[in-house]
Specification:
By secondary structure, the protein is of the alpha+beta class. It has helices at 32-40, 61-68, 115-124, 193-196, 205-214, 220-223, 250-259; strands at residues 16-17, 26-28, 44-48, 52-57, 81-87, 93-102, 105-110, 132-135, 140-145, 156-158, 184-189, 201-203, 264-271, 284-287, 290-301, 305-313, 321-326, 329-337.
């Protein structure tokens, strides 16, 4: 998507444009918490047409992406959905892709602005394989909802979160709050956007983010920094196949999962609402005078009130109340564990990357 993109749905009455990475679509249409309630209940659609789309075609498309990424792609069937990552040699997250399998192509749904660098990398890895990578971002976008949108067509990616995909591993509890929020992304032609939502209520990005944070789902454009490894965000659930090799960064995936601990962990934060404002993403998280992490995403939820996701050092006491420091404002924040401090060191389960069990 280009930097100058503006959704035609910003013409809707009450639309207020979002900022930052979500510039070009609505933050809300006049009532963000009510919009979040409607979105949760399946009574509204969210405009994510600023998201980027890549198309991979050619006979080798699935086996090729399989060899590059963390997820098993080669065995997927038409209409299957998955999520996968590209990592650095050190196992750090460089790209995140929501993959929709169609009969003659793969569609990759990406964060705004992610298509160009990813396309450049993928083209550099084509060699003699029968694959073509095309950027559809100028002509296609995404509409999101918690239920199918018949008028949006049948190119629908179904979020695997918070299920545990084949070959995956959960670092958080079984009664995951994300099960309350199904999430469907419909790939549409931009010229058909207004028609696709003609008779629908709309919800802005503030509603989308409130539901995502409450579902504990990380976002590439928010929870990621240049040191992030998948374990820290519980992304082994949906984005990593532990029994699959042959991709850059696999040694870190195996080592941390089997014999180590992720150095940081994502955490859900219940914020004190007495200030009647929200801290900015990027605000420091402090335990006493010590900085132990940062806030990554913040929202006002229609039931839970002010909530956030943050990334903290692994050994921070989960029972402690943290302070979110945003300029002169300080927000007490209680933690709810997503990734446990003792995540990793999976005794007795070796994924094939380790040939022998670790010695004491």
């Amino acid at each position: 998507m280009t930097e100058t993109y503006r959704s035609p749905l910003l013409q809707r009455e009450g639309a207020v444009e979002a900022g930052g990475v979500d510039t070009g679509v609505a933050a809300h249409y006049g009532a963000p918490t009510r919009e979040a309630r409607r979105l949760f209940d399946g009574e509204a659609i969210a405009d994510l047409t600023h998201f980027d789309i890549l198309e991979i075609s050619g006979a080798d498309r699935q086996s090729w992406l399989d060899t590059l990424s963390t997820q098993r792609i080669s065995t997927l069937k038409p209409s299957d959905s998955t999520q996968t990552l590209l990592l650095s040699i050190q196992g750090r997250v460089e790209h995140e892709m929501k993959v929709l399998v169609q009969p003659e192509r793969l569609l990759l749904i990406l964060e705004p602005g992610a298509a160009a660098p990813l396309q450049e990398f993928l083209n550099s890895m084509r060699f003699m394989l029968r694959v073509e990578v095309a950027d559809l971002s100028a002509t296609h976008g995404v509409l999101a909802a918690t239920r199918p949108i018949p008028s949006a067509g049948d190119a629908v990616w179904t979020d695997p979160w918070p299920g545990v995909s084949e070959g995956g591993w959960a670092y958080s509890r079984e009664d995951h709050p994300g099960t309350e929020r199904p999430w469907l992304l419909h790939v549409v032609e931009l010229e058909n956007t207004i028609q696709a939502v003609a008779d629908e209520q709309l919800a802005g990005m503030m509603a989308v983010e409130a539901l995502r944070i409450a579902a504990w789902e990380p976002r590439f454009g928010a929870e990621i920094d240049d040191k992030t490894i998948p374990h820290e965000l519980d992304w082994l659930r949906t984005s990593v196949h532990l029994n699959k090799g042959c991709y850059k960064g696999q040694e870190t995936i195996a080592r941390v999962h089997n014999i180590g601990h992720p150095p940081r962990r994502i955490v859900f934060l219940d914020l004190d609402g007495s200030l009647h404002t929200l801290p900015a993403p990027g605000s420091e998280l402090k335990l006493g005078e010590r900085t132990v992490g940062r806030v990554t995403s913040v929202a006002l939820h229609f039931e839970a009130g002010p909530i956030a996701l943050g990334v903290v050092k692994r050994n921070v006491d989960p029972e402690s109340v943290l302070s979110v420091v945003d300029g002169e404002s300080i927000y007490p924040a209680s933690q709810e564990i997503i990734v446990a401090p003792d995540a990793g060191q999976v005794a007795g389960r070796f994924t094939g990357f380790l040939r022998t069990p670790p010695t004491a």
